[in-house]
Each structure stands twice: as structure tokens, then as C-alpha cells.
């Protein structure tokens, strides 16, 4: 079991999740954040923080989002760590509205 | 002397309580632009607070948060001062005079009371006592829990209530390779408990369990989770709650409760029964607890604000043991303001105030459960500690410059004959515990008396 960031984060990158992560397991690129499953302790603190509900426990993943387990595991370790929240991407608010949040 | 936060005059901070909030406050100070010197003061000879003494032994992954704290502890700015009780070994006033800033991160150590007749009967306990006992907390080492009656009752709908019920439900085989204290394992091995009732004041749609915790009940080897399907009939408002976005977590819980309702009786030794809309009104028994009397409730109010009101109807559950887990309160520290009503230290975004809503007391701060009450999980305390440390850093120009810090602390402790330990000494305790666990296939066998810890620290 692990916790994964999915599609909705892409283009938003709000990073509210990062502030409550007890173990610094988030990494980021230009589009979104990813969780390193080897560091994450599955506490789920980040899940309710996401304004666009992008974060799920592995066995709660909506259909069609399963590939994100692998994407998080592959990408996170090689990307820079993010330990403090940063400004969302410029198009974040628009995307949030488009996503229905 | 340079300005506070400079190489020659580092910002000297004492943090009281070495649980998650204490470590996250430490981390935030170390990451700041200021030169800092931190003394993390802990009442026990062991750090990590609730991650060591609260997180259930069968949740080892959550305990890995400790790895982060161990890393923080390696920073040169950090110093651990264990086995020191503020208010006894050193006065709060003395601490304030010794440091530029003091941050209280001492958590919420006592359970709220039910406030009903019979609460003090033998057999009626707090979840805190039981959790501390199975986790080897020295304060609860010598408690005894009589598990000779078939029925146990847990009052509460949060994750601690779930932990208590799960530990009662699991077989010794499921627990023996965890870091559960040996004395607890020995008693649980003789447990005659067959039915565990987990009782909520409100309905299944209002239960506060993390759905992951609830799901675990479906996996227990010798225990069937059960709920009477009738209990899952929701009123219109509760239905609206779980159909809304904010009700996402509650909806997940309800799906799991549905599975409990559908679970088959496969002859498992134990049953864990979830039941709702009942408030205990009295505990009865002749010296020992024999039964709990509940008043049946109904819900009324707006979505997410529904409250339980008694209907006048009562029902009873016979039981030999009861645990209450209906929230926590902080314990006041002599000389530090305390807001009885919330069980917290009164504060404004982390700055301690004279009283609730009163003036700010310069140089005094708080973070974690003792600041905001017992809500949220481990990580919530990181954001909370960051907020409090921001306040410390904003106030830096107002601190009295000439503070002795660590030297001053040690002077007081030595004068009072206190046997304090540092982090290197704790590491000896840690290593000894891990070594003691190894032959049993456990990650560690904890020392459960302070004397034992101190002996290992000084070996």
C-alpha cells in the first residue's frame, strides 16, 4: 500500500499537501508533485489537504488512475525534494475551476 | 555581544516535549536564517512522544516518522535533555529567564471524562492508560487490566478507540512480532474477551475513524467485525452529508461499515460490534463494573452540525471492562497559563497569552495538541509547529539579549540534583532496546521503567 498523487495535480501544483507531510516524501517537477513510496508512511495527512482531490491511497484509486502508482514511484526519487509549500502554478486556479472544485 | 541569531549570540530556544511537534518546531528553527541553539526538554528518558508511546505497535509504518526525528537530532544546533520535568525539576519561570524563547509542545496527556455516575468503578478505564500500558509508557507500566469478562466496551469513534478495540481483538500471534510491551502481551494472551462493543454517540455517518483504520478490522485473523444492518439506516441529513464532497471520508467509512454488516459468521473467536446513537449515562456494578446503561439518541441539526439528543429510551450492555476515548486534554504545567475549558495553553497563532483571548506573554510559545487541541494526525503538527516558529522568528528583536541558554539550564538542573540524559545516552537506551527485541523477533523490547532506561543510558 502506498499513497499517490494523480492527474488532477498536473497544472495545479498547489502544494498544500507538503505542509503536513511528516516525513518529507514529496518531490516536484514543472507540472506537479509526486510521492516517494519508499519514504511515505501512509499517514494520509496530505489527502484531505489537496484542493483538487488529486491524492489517493493506492487501493482507493479511481478507475483509470492506476498508472500513477508506478509514475510516482519512478519519478519521485530522481526529482528535487519539496519540504515547504510554494506558490501554485499560474494556471492553477483556472484548472481547479475546470476540474469542478 | 552580537544581535540575537548571530554566530556570537545564537537564538537560544527551549522546547518542552519531544513528540512530533517538538521535533517539527526544532526542524523549523534549524531551517531558519538565524543561528540557533535548541534544547529539547523531555519528561521521560526517551524521546518521540506519541510516536513511541501512542501509535499502535501494529502500525510500524507510522512509527517510521521517528527516522525523520533521528535525522533532525543529528543537527549540531540540537540538544536533547531527557528525564526533566518542567514545573518540578526546573520552574517555568526559570526556563523563561534562561532562554530567549520557550516553546511548549507537551501534547494532551489525559482523557476527557464521561462525567457519569460509576465512572470511577474498577474496570472503567481511559484509553490513554491502556494505550500507554501496551506501549510500555513508564507512567502506566504498573496498571492492571482485568480481561476475564467476555464483553468489553470502547466508548469513542476516533482512531484511538479503533486502536484499543483492535488490540483487544487481535490474537497474540498477530502482535508478538511488534514492539508491544511484553507485560501487555502476557496479559492479552490470557484474555477472555469475546465481544468488543465500539459505541458512538452519533451515527455511522459521523464516525471520526480514518477509513484505513476501519478497514483493518476486516483483516483480523480471529475477529469478525459486525454491525446490525439496521444501524446503517441514515436520516435524510446524514445521507446528504455523505453524498456531499466534504463527506468523502465518511462515505468511505460507511462502505466499510456495510462490509461489517455483511460479514459472515465463520466461527471466529471474537466479534467486534460497532453500535451507534448511544450515550453512556451510568456505569453499574458492585465495586467492579458489571454493566453500562446507555440512553438511545437521535440526531438533529444542519448537515455536518448534527448533534445527538437523548430520546429517553435506555439500553444496557453487560461488560467487565470499559475504555473511554472521547477526546483528550492537556495537563497544566505550573507557571504556564492554561485554558481549562479546552484543555490547552491559551495562545494566538502560537504566542502564549495570559488567558484565553488575553495579552501575549513575550518569549513564550506553544505548538501541537497543547496549542490547538487534540485534532489532526502526526503531519498536522508540522504545519502547526511551522506557524509557531514563524512567530518566534518575527519576535526575535523583542527578546532580552542576555540569556545563558544551555549552560543556565544545566546549572539549575545540577543545583536541583536532576539526573538528565543527552541524545547520545538515549541512543544507548535505543540500542539496548533493539538488542533486547532481537531474540524475540521484535523490532525492540522497550524498557518500561525510567530506572531501567537511566541505567542503560549511563552504562
Describe this protein's structure:
The complex is a heterodimer of chains A (101) and B (459). With 101 residues, chain A is α+β, with helices and mostly antiparallel strands. Chain A has one domain (3-85): Alpha-Beta Plaits, CATH 3.30.70. Chain A is built from three helices and four strands. In chain A, the strands form two sheets. A two-stranded antiparallel sheet of chain A has the order 1-4. In chain A, strands 2-3 form a two-stranded antiparallel sheet. Chain A is globular, with a radius of gyration of 12 Å. Chain B is an alpha/beta fold and 459 residues long. Chain B has helices spanning 20-31, 49-53, 60-63, 65-73, 92-98, 127-134, 159-169, 172-175, 182-189, 211-215, 236-243, 248-262, 369-372, 380-394, 406-415, 423-437, 450-457; strands spanning 11-16, 36-42, 78-82, 101-104, 110-111, 124-126, 151-155, 195-199, 223-226, 270-275, 278-284, 291-300, 307-318, 321-324, 328-329, 347-348, 351-353, 360-366. In chain B, the strands form four sheets. Chain B has a seven-stranded mixed sheet with strand order 3-2-1-4-18-17-16, covered by helices on one side. In chain B, a hairpin with a 2-residue loop joins strand 16 and strand 17 (351-353). Chain B starts with 10 loop residues before the first strand and ends with a helix. Chain A binds chain B through residues 19-24, 41-46, 48, 53, 57, 60, 84, and chain B through 20, 24, 61-62, 64-65, 67-68, 210, 212, 248-249, 252, 376-383, 386.
The averaged pLDDT of chain A comes out at 95
Instruction: Quote the CATH topology of the largest domain in chain B.
Output: FAD/NAD(P)-binding domain
Report the strand count of chain B. Answer: 18
Oligomer: heterodimer
Tell the overall outline of chain B.
globular
Greatest interface (CB-CB under 8 A), with counts per chain? A-B, 17 and 22 residues
Percentage of residues in helical conformation of chain B: 25-40%
Number of helical segments with 4 or more residues of chain A: 3
The 3D shape of chain A can be described as globular
Task: Tell me what the CATH architecture of chain A is.
Answer: 2-Layer Sandwich
Q: What's the CATH first level of chain A? A: Alpha Beta
Q: Could you give a short account of the major beta sheet of chain A?
A: 2 strands, antiparallel
CATH architecture of the largest domain in chain B: 3-Layer(bba) Sandwich
What is the CA-atom radius of gyration of chain B, in angstroms?
Answer: 23 Å
What's the CATH C level of the largest domain in chain B? Alpha Beta
Cα(first) to Cα(last) distance of chain A is: 27 Å
Percentage beta strand of chain A: 5-15%
Amino acid at each position: 500500500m502506498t499513497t499517490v498523487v494523480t492527474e488532477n495535480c498536473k497544472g495545479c501544483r498547489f502544494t498544500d499537501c507538503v505542509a503536513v507531510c511528516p516525513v518529507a516524501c514529496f518531490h516536484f517537477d514543472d507540472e506537479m508533485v509526486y510521492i516517494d513510496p519508499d519514504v511515505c508512511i501512509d499517514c494520509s495527512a496530505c489527502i484531505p489537504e489537496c484542493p483538487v482531490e488529486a491524492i489517493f491511497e493506492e487501493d482507493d484509486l479511481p478507475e483509470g488512475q492506476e498508472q500513477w502508482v508506478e509514475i510516482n514511484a519512478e519519478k519521485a526519487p530522481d526529482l528535487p525534494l519539496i519540504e515547504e509549500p510554494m506558490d501554485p502554478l499560474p494556471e492553477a486556479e483556472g484548472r481547479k475551476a475546470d476540474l469542478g472544485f | 555581544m552580537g544581535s540575537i541569531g548571530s554566530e556570537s549570540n545564537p537564538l537560544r530556544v527551549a522546547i518542552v516535549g519531544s513528540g512530533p511537534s517538538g521535533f517539527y518546531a526544532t526542524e523549523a528553527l534549524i531551517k531558519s536564517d538565524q543561528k540557533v541553539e535548541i534544547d529539547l526538554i523531555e519528561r521521560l528518558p526517551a524521546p518521540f512522544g506519541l510516536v513511541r508511546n501512542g501509535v499502535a505497535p501494529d502500525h510500524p509504518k507510522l512509527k517510521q516518522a521517528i527516522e525523520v526525528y533521528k535525522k533532525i537530532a543529528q543537527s549540531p544546533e540540537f540538544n536533547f535533555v531527557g528525564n526533566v520535568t518542567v514545573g518540578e525539576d526546573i520552574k517555568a519561570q526559570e526556563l523563561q529567564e534562561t532562554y530567549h524563547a520557550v516553546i511548549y509542545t507537551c501534547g494532551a496527556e489525559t482523557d476527557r471524562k464521561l462525567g457519569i455516575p460509576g465512572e470511577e468503578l474498577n474496570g472503567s478505564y481511559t484509553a490513554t492508560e491502556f494505550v500507554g500500558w501496551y506501549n510500555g509508557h513508564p507512567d502506566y507500566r504498573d496498571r492492571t487490566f482485568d480481561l476475564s469478562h467476555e464483553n468489553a466496551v470502547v466508548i469513542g469513534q476516533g482512531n484511538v478507540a479503533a486502536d484499543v478495540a483492535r488490540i483487544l481483538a487481535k490474537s497474540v500471534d498477530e502482535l508478538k512480532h511488534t514492539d508491544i510491551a511484553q507485560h501487555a502481551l502476557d496479559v492479552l494472551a490470557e484474555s477472555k474477551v469475546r465481544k468488543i462493543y465500539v459505541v458512538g454517540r452519533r451515527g455511522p455517518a459521523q464516525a471520526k475513524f480514518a477509513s484505513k483504520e476501519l478497514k483493518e478490522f476486516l483483516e483480523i485473523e480471529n475477529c469478525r467485525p459486525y454491525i446490525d444492518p439496521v444501524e446503517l439506516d441514515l436520516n435524510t441529513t446524514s445521507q446528504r452529508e455523505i453524498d456531499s464532497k466534504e463527506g468523502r471520508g465518511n462515505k468511505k467509512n460507511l462502505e466499510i461499515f456495510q462490509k461489517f454488516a455483511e460479514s459472515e459468521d465463520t466461527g471466529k473467536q471474537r466479534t467486534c460490534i460497532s453500535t451507534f446513537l448511544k450515550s453512556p449515562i451510568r456505569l453499574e456494578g458492585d465495586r467492579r463494573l458489571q454493566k453500562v446503561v446507555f440512553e438511545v439518541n437521535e440526531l438533529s441539526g444542519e448537515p455536518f452540525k448534527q448533534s445527538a439528543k437523548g430520546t429517553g429510551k435506555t439500553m444496557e450492555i453487560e461488560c467487565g471492562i470499559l475504555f473511554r476515548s472521547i477526546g483528550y486534554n492537556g495537563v497544566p504545567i505550573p507557571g504556564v497559563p492554561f485554558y481549562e475549558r479546552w484543555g490547552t495553553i491559551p495562545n494566538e497563532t502560537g504566542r502564549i497569552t495570559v488567558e484565553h483571548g488575553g495579552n501575549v506573554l513575550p518569549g513564550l510559545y506553544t505548538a501541537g495538541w497543547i496549542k490547538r487541541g487534540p485534532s489532526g494526525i502526526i503531519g498536522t503538527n508540522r504545519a502547526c509547529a511551522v506557524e509557531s516558529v514563524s512567530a518566534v522568528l518575527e519576535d526575535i528583536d523583542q527578546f532580552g539579549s542576555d540569556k545563558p541558554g544551555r549552560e543556565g539550564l544545566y546549572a539549575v538542573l545540577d543545583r536541583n540534583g536532576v539526573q538528565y540524559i543527552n541524545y547520545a545516552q538515549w541512543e544507548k537506551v535505543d540500542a539496548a532496546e533493539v538488542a533486547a527485541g532481537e531474540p524475540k523477533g521484535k523490532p525492540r523490547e522497550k524498557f518500561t521503567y525510567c530506572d531501567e532506561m537511566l541505567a542503560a543510558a549511563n552504562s
